[in-house]
Design brief:
4-stranded antiparallel sheet; single chain; 154 residues; Alpha-Beta Plaits; alpha+beta; 5 helices
Length: 154
């Protein structure tokens, strides 16, 4: 029997989840790559009781703001871990096939930080959406098509 180490995830908790390309390599080389990741993200979200409140894909990394299901304590495992495992594995298979890449696509397991204060949540949403501005990719966050910034502007 194989032992699988699980992260401590709190039911209904909101987490800043992020990962980068192995050795900081570019993991989205063209628009199709970004779209493929987002399509896979939507597919795996539709099968699990978690919610994404914000996201931003950058050329060599991504940020997600995910809320765990209140049911995770009842079933005894975190849905975020299942979601991330499926998403990263599926995208890595796509990337390796498309670019004839061998080896790891992502640098280790994904990182996750509990968002436990309302002020931190607001700051984090801004931080996630402002990534392409800070990296001088676009002038305004809503201009980056691979983030949820345009969904939060009224």
């Amino acid at each position: 029997m194989r032992f699988i180490m699980q992260r401590r995830i709190i039911a209904n908790g909101i987490y800043h989840v992020y990962s980068r390309g192995n050795q900081q390599m570019v993991i989205y080389k063209d628009g199709r790559d970004y779209e493929k990741f987002l399509t896979k993200m939507d597919f795996y979200l539709s099968n699990l009781p978690i919610e994404i409140h914000a996201y931003c894909l950058m050329p060599n990394h991504f940020h997600l703001l995910i809320q765990e299901s209140s049911d995770s304590e009842k079933v005894g495992f975190p849905f975020i871990s299942i979601f991330m495992s499926r998403l990263l594995s599926a995208y890595a298979k796509y990337f390796c096939a498309k670019y004839k890449h061998s080896g790891h696509v992502f640098q280790g397991r994904f990182n996750s930080l509990l968002v436990d204060k309302p002020d931190y949540l607001k700051t984090l949403i801004y931080y996630i959406h402002d990534n392409p501005v800070r990296k001088s990719i676009v002038e305004k966050a809503i201009d980056w098509p691979y983030s949820s910034a345009h969904l939060t502007v009224s």
